[in-house]
């Protein structure tokens, strides 16, 4: 039998799925790693931890193949985007991986955004000016961490670092490049003005290749560790969000994909770059001919996790005693509360926010709290707040591309019946849940299949997605949400005037606390 491996180097773990050539899942595995938050606004990871996770998951997949009768046709990569590693002249890391969730570049982002060239940079690169981007991260290093910036000979993200270590190649796919804020998406080359702003040359950045780029010849030491033959073909792939759209068959015009995992996003695909005059959404590449337009949010399942860990200790203990998943128990609790949480609203901005407000200083809040509200109301309000925020991204996306004909939803939240229905009710339209398993891995596998000629078009992914389930909006619920969502949006705008004030206070408090220790 012939096999394909789709591998996703994600934010919290590396996942790998072994498929046959019909897209059937044979087996899967994952390996987690730590996210370091040693200081306010920091979100870093160790490059070696992720390299080890990649080799470990690949080894597990390789061990499932009977090399006497089976063939591994290709391994194709997905990865998180907007991570940065500064390297010395020997390609040795000078930093840990500065992830998309790291917001220490907020002052640099604000300076660029408010400058004469801020809007022009966005319009050429498709990347909103925000601390997540490499444009802002490198500018921050230049201004605030010169001891690293002055030593840095090269810059890359996690996928590029892993491929350099495994194969000795120095390249970045157009998908990841288009997320940096330094790549001109219309000219398909590094943007001269962005490079000038950061003081970085083209020679310090990887060569940009298409998603279908093939390579082989894994270094002997890693071939030995993983058991992977050195003649196996590998494929570059793309960033995880774009491949997630592909993996749920949301690549046709008029189809939107909603993903809620640790974070979240809404994306649609176009055959040409599209820019939002208001700068609320991104335009990133899937391949050199397909473009993903949408908005990411920082605050998805991670907010539900925060609520579980900080507000519901008793329920966690009960879940343990009953042998139940604590998330499932909390969802049951939330389902006992009516839609709209009896007027309790929650802004889920615990980690700043990206789309649509692009404010790293944004903070979370409950609004409307009254004596009648219980912790059950609070947990439902948390879930609703996550969906409200995604809906505001959809509204921005509709202004640019028009209303989608259909909405597909995936991610960890999709396992919850309550969240599926809530999404349909708030969006006030049917939402379809594909059966696709690990959509980014499947998307990577499909890119690999096209690269090596197993399929002719990416659209053939429709044959691999499997069955779907569609949820229709409940009129009683969406009438409630029609009243509450405008209040949620107005509050967001009003609170934005104070987000930096409270964030600055928190930073000073954190610094004083560290000094006191």
- Total number of beta strands: 23
Strand order of the largest sheet: 3-2-1-5-14-13
- Structural Rg: 22 Å
Our measurement of the CA-to-CA distance between the termini, rounded to an integer number of angstroms, reads 61 Å
Main sheet overview: 6 strands, mixed
SS content category:
alpha+beta
pLDDT averaged residue by residue: 94
Our estimate of the beta-strand percent is: 15-25%
Which residues sit in consecutive blocks of at least 5 with pLDDT less than 50? none
Shape: globular
Question: What fraction, in percent, of the residue positions are helical?
Answer: 40-55%
H/I helix tally? 17
GO biological process, one term: D-gluconate metabolic process
Organism: Tetragenococcus osmophilus
Family: Belongs to the FGGY kinase family.
GO molecular function, one term: gluconokinase activity
Spell out the blueprint of helices and strands.
Blueprint: E1 2-9, E2 13-20, E3 25-32, E4 44-45, H1 47-62, E5 71-79, E6 85-87, E7 97-98, H2 106-113, H3 118-125, H4 134-144, H5 146-149, E8 154-156, H6 158-167, E9 171-173, H7 174-177, E10 183-184, E11 189-190, H8 192-198, E12 207-209, E13 214-215, H9 220-226, E14 233-239, H10 240-247, E15 255-260, E16 264-270, E17 282-287, E18 290-297, H11 301-311, H12 313-322, H13 326-335, E19 345-347, E20 365-367, H14 375-401, E21 406-410, H15 417-427, E22 431-434, H16 439-452, E23 468-471, H17 475-516
Parallel strand pairs: 1-5, 5-14, 9-12, 15-21
Antiparallel strand pairs: 1-2, 2-3, 4-7, 6-8, 10-11, 13-14, 15-16, 16-18, 17-18, 19-20, 22-23
Helix pairs in contact: 1-6, 2-4, 4-8, 10-16, 11-14, 13-14, 14-15, 15-17
InterPro entries: ATPase_NBD, Carb_kinase_FGGY, Carb_kinase_FGGY_CS, FGGY_C, FGGY_Carb_Kinase, FGGY_N, Gluconate_kinase
Keywords: Kinase, Transferase
Domain Carbohydrate kinase FGGY N-terminal: 3-247
């Amino acid at each position: 039998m012939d096999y394909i491996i789709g591998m996703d180097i994600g934010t919290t773990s590396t996942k790998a799925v072994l498929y046959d050539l019909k897209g059937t899942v044979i087996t899967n595995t994952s390996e987690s790693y730590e996210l370091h938050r040693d200081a306010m606004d920091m979100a870093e990871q160790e490059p070696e931890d992720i390299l080890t996770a990649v080799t470990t998951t690949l080894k597990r997949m390789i061990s499932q193949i009977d090399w006497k009768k089976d063939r591994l046709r290709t391994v194709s990569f997905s990865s998180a985007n907007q991570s940065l590693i500064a390297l010395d002249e020997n390609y040795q890391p000078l930093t840990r991986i500065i992830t998309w969730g790291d917001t220490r570049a907020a002052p640099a982002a604000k300076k660029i955004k408010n400058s004469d060239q801020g809007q022009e940079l966005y319009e050429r690169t498709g990347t909103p000016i925000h601390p997540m981007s490499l444009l802002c991260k490198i500018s921050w290093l230049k201004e605030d961490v010169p001891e690293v910036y002055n030593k840095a000979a090269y810059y890359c993200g996690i996928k590029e670092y892993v491929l350099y270590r495994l194969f000795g190649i120095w390249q970045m796919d157009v998908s990841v490049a288009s997320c940096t804020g330094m790549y001109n998406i219309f000219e398909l080359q590094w943007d001269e003005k962005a490079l000038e702003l950061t003081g970085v040359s083209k020679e310090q950045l990887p060569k940009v290749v298409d998603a279908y780029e093939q390579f082989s010849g894994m270094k002997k030491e890693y071939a030995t560790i993983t058991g992977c033959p050195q003649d196996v073909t590998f494929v570059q792939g793309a960033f995880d969000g774009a491949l997630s759209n592909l993996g749920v068959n949301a690549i046709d015009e008029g189809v939107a994909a909603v993903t809620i995992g640790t974070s979240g996003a809404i994306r649609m695909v176009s055959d040409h770059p599209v820019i939002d005059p208001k700068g609320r959404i991104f335009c990133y590449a899937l391949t050199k001919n397909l473009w993903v337009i949408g908005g990411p949010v920082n605050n998805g399942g991670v907010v539900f996790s925060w609520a579980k860990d900080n507000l519901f200790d008793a329920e966690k203990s009960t879940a343990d005693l009953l042998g139940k998943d604590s998330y499932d128990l909390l969802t049951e609790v939330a389902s006992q509360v009516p839609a709209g949480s009896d007027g309790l609203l929650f802004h889920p901005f615990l980690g700043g926010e990206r789309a649509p407000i692009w404010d790293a200083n944004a903070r979370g809040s409950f609004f409307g709290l009254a004596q009648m509200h219980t912790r059950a109301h609070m947990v439902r309000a948390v879930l609703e707040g996550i969906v409200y925020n995604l809906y505001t991204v959809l509204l921005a996306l509709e202004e640019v591309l028009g209303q989608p004909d259909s909405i597909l939803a995936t991610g960890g939240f999709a396992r919850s019946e309550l969240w599926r229905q809530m999404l349909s009710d708030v969006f006030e339209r049917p939402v379809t849940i594909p059966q696709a398993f690990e959509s980014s891995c499947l998307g990577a596998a499909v890119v690999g299949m096209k690269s090596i000629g197993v399929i002719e078009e990416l659209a053939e992914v429709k044959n691999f997605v499997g069955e779907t389930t569609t949820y229709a909006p409940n009129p009683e619920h969406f009438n409630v949400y029609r009243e509450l969502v405008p209040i949620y949006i107005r509050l967001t705008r009003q609170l934005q005037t104070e987000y930096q004030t409270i964030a600055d206070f928190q930073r000073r408090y954190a610094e004083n606390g560290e000094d006191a220790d």
